[in-house]
Amino acid sequence: xxxxxxxxxxxxxxxxxxxxxxxxxxxxxxxxxxxxxxxxxxxxxxxxxxxxxxxxxxxxxxxxxxxxxxxxxxxxxxxxxxxxxxxxxxxxxxxxxxxxxxxxxxxxxxxxxxxxxxxxxxxxxxxxxxxxxxxxxxxxxxxxxxxxxxxxxxxxxxxxxxxxxxxxxxxxxxxxxxxxxxxxxxxxxxxxxxxxxxxxxxxxxxxxxxxxxxxxxxxxxxxxxxxxxxxxxxxxxxxxxxxxxxxxxxxxxxxxxxxxxxxxxxxxxxxxxxxxxxxxxxxxxxxxxxxxxxxxxxxxxxxxxxxxxxxxxxxxxxxxxxxxxxxxxxxxxxxxxxxxxxxxxxxxxxxxxxxxxxxxxxxxxxxxxxxxxxxxxxxxxxxxxxxxxxxxxxxxxxxxxxxxxxxx
Length: 408
Prior knowledge:
Layout: H1 32-54, H2 68-96, H3 103-122, H4 125-132, H5 135-150, H6 156-177, H7 187-217, H8 227-246, H9 250-270, H10 280-303, H11 309-336, H12 345-363, H13 369-399
């Protein structure tokens, strides 16, 4: 049997089990269902909550945990990580032909994620650390077991990134509690490390899914996949990330960042993004990847003190990460609920709202005070509207059985 690659996620590589019984709980049928839904609801609520606290709303002053560290952590280890785990549970089912967590096992893992969100918002720093740190091991162990059992170990390196995210999360919590005090380690640097790790994961996954999706959906389109270029983009992303975190000399960091941005543009050009303009499910993925190049370019400018680190990190986290997440959430939900892989006006609205929100958030970093408050509000409204629309449109898909009667 030919080994499944990351872009083979619409249908399993082996024969499916008998049709899902009516007595089953559809939302627990496969990992993408609860985690996409939980992540979208959390995304829609958390940004307005943070902005209200940031602007000084009195009723939120009773939640001292709702500070900048909460905002940074929860966008990554709350929202983004939930989507990553949901995607990996779903993709691993197809890579291996074996069932990843479902039904009550999946419900328990989702409950661990939810408990972590509650602890981060309401609990002490020590309690939040103890509960929040449970999630990655609970999610990674079953992924490892199905890959090992199937012998399909090609994608095991993805679990190494989850392991690094776990370590960085531990550093965040230890620093937050006051157990760790090192020269190059801070709450901000640990969050930068988490963002860059997720970007590296995006670089790997994008190279496997975007060219394949593009070739499959657009007749006659043959995206160029260059193994050396793929490796160069990954190596430069890692090198630039390490240079940023290690505070290397300014000239070296800027050189690496600009080179990294250039390689990503070169790689994206080979995938022929201009041919995707009539396919929203494709152009949103290409646009998300373009934001990675823009983010590394802004990192170079930040090294030269021509813009802020916040601007670069928000380009990577808000514009790139959220666009790729929304593109993959819509696509995998449609494919795995038995629907056509076709986007309508609602999907286009979600995608465009995220672009508007990302641009508004970058504009908020301008030094003009009158612009910042309005731009932050616009970014919050666009972000929340995009994910609220996803919940309203895709929530019923995620909570009901597949249209074709298959299990999952």
